[in-house]
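REQUEST FORM: STRUCTURE PREDICTION
Request ID: SP-0412
Submitted by: Lab K.M.
Chain count: 1
Length (residues): 80
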Amino acid sequence: MVTSVLALLAIGIAAVSLAFLMGRWESNDSMAGAAAACAVFVLVVFAVAASEVAVGLALIISIYRRRHTIAVEEIDMMKW
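STATUS: Completed
RESULT:
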């Protein structure tokens, strides 16, 4: 369950980035600066998405080491 949530988040971010890339592809030569800005924005979004995946994987590994499970129903570490 946790991995599917993280995967869906990464897919959503990738979809937005691809939308920006398509906008860059179809831009005119008069908008060369905007096209370059779109490309830089997409690179930043991919870098952020990669870091989110790394943090999510680190959390999953940490939870598994403490609880010996990654089942969402059995993890109650956030409860008071």
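NOTES: The chain has two helices and no strands.
Reviewed by: T.R.
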